[in-house]
Amino acid sequence: xxxxxxxxxxDFFAGIFxxxxxxxxxxxxxxxVDIWLKDDKSFEMGKVCLGLVANAKEINKxxxxxxxxxxxxxxxxxxxxxxxEKNDYIGLDMQVHAIKKSFFKExxxxxxxxxxxxxxxxxLSENKEKFSITYKDHKGILTYNVGNVSVIGNxxxxxxxxxxxxxxxxxxxxxxxxxxxxxDVSAMAKHLVGGGGxxxxxxxxxxxxxxxxxxxxxxxxxxxxxTKKTQEEI
Length: 234
Known about the structure:
Layout: H1 5-17, H2 21-34, H3 43-54, H4 65-80, H5 89-104, H6 112-126, H7 128-131, E1 132-135, E2 138-144, H8 149-159, E3 165-169, E4 174-179, H9 185-193, E5 196-197, E6 201-205, H10 215-232
Parallel strand pairs: 2-3
Antiparallel strand pairs: 1-2, 3-4, 4-6, 5-6
Helix pairs in contact: 1-2, 2-3, 3-5, 4-5, 5-6, 6-8
């Protein structure tokens, strides 16, 4: 109870392989906030790092586990640059936005929102058959907690014109529907979950949705919902 899991793990392996200054500082920062050592010199740094990780939701782990791990590794490595003699937690707090952008930026700079959208759309496009679903004669894509649905949904549909609609389901049981002129998603939302909205942007609540930690069971619930609703019309 006097050390967090990260600190225990570091101490164990340091005893076998020898100490590593960077990892030791990192484990001290994690330890200070994890067991809430308010008087520890690393406590404020730990709070900033905790917020940085907790709010790093730009890449959904359920859909893109490997990419999410790379992202977390990136932001923690960048954060560790501020673990200096100054203990510059304020400097780190000021650089959170830039740290996030540095992961997503490729050829040219843009807003963080656009950079994230470009990255996620690229990953969705690379795996679009895995994430594809059908509704009547229309082909669509299903995401889970993807965030920024209006931007990402529209950008994906523009980049992949063979798709007619975009659905994002969340852990709060909400469904967000997006289209690009090929399907009235307000009618689709009403049909599936009694929802509604606009022709190209609608939403609804899937009350029976059960949250999960892997994509396939989540997709299976939406496919089952569509199957049942469309069969009711026959």
